[in-house]
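Good morning C.,

I know you're traveling, so I'll keep this short. The sequence:
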Amino acid sequence: MIGVDCNITAGPCELLNPCQNQGTCANSTDNNLGYKCQCLQGFDGDNCQYDRRPCKPTTCWNNGTCNETSNATFECLCQTGWTGLHCELMVNYCENIICENNGICRSLFMNYTCECLGESYSGRHCEITSTKTVLFQTVSKSFAYVAIIFLVAMVIFIIIMDILKYGFGIDPVKHERERLRREKANKRARRRPVIQRFTYVHERHPTTA
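The tokens, ready to paste straight into the viewer:
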């Protein structure tokens, strides 16, 4: 005992208060510490400093509820919008969502949003096309159709001409081809160079008397 009135116990439990996590301390001479800690369930160590509980205050995040399934295992009951072993992951609401027109889905807390491409598209899933974009698409398709029709017509025309020429011996452009050949021949004849040969004559000077 110590103190002015000798009313204070001088044991390690009273002086040091060594037991943690609400452990109960008892003075003892059975070990070198001079005390023993009786720990609550789930704690151990000389001072009950080790927490072996499956469910701790920080086991389940985001207000999840921890449920001990055995002395060493646990299960977190997560709040709406959270998932994972410790309720650490936000639920991906974009998992089964398809954003149209190359839109990008972005998951939010208990919701999702489709980020549309520029100002051309709008709507919950970018399904609404702006009037300007529709006009451009229509014009582009029209030009494409016209080009395709023109190419198809040219191919059909060439095939028909070959069938008439080699299948039936009919050459619809024979006269036109001959006319063009004659015109080329005439132009070539006009451009034929004229060779001129010059003859030099020695001039005789008159003799003087």
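Safe travels,
E.
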